[in-house]
Amino acid sequence: MSGIARAYVGALIQDGQTFHSSHAPVAGSNGSLSILLLEVMPRGCPTEVLDGGFITAGSVDLQVNGSGGVMFNDNIRAT
Q: What CATH fold (topology level) applies to the domain 4-71?
């Protein structure tokens, strides 16, 4: 990674399979993302200290079929 833009410390990281308590997610100045052991992070790198909590991978799937008595997918016609 070329230069660390910011490291986020103080939260438990879950990568989908494992919890990492002695690691920090790190954003590189080139746009890269990685997880580093706290003991190998360079001294003096920009750091955001979090007040506990979890950092996890995730996504949101939103689907709107209608509202207020109107179904958007009722009368579908090809144009």
A: Urease, subunit C; domain 1 (2.30.40)
